[in-house]
Amino acid sequence: MKILYHIIAILVLSTFLYLFFVITDSLGTHHLAELLMNIDFLPGFRHAGFFSSLLFHLGTSTAVYIAFQCIKNSHFYPIGIIISIIMFGILYPFLITMSVRSMFVFSWGDYAIWMLGHILFLVLIDLSLRFEKNFTHH
Q: pTM of the entire structure?
């Protein structure tokens, strides 16, 4: 039951982040959902389809989730959150710079939305780990 909880949590978290960016894109930002899923700069993935990008995104979300699962009861947890925020902050300009497609352009407004989405993602990870015991006991 515990593994099922974590699988569902990862799927919900990944879907939330993607849909958050789909919604903000529809309100006027510049391709944040596509940037989130973009892996065209990786060798062999220049013309990757949505499914390949989705699997890559799920793998990345899983790695972040597992990292927090491993440190959730340690003094490294707050440090992990700070490091994650910094990494998400670096990721936005990095993905724009590395992208093969020229449609991605740096924007401070989009950067703020990117950070908001990823901070909400971290909050949801924290909540899912805090409430794990409520859903996995017998």
A: 0.91
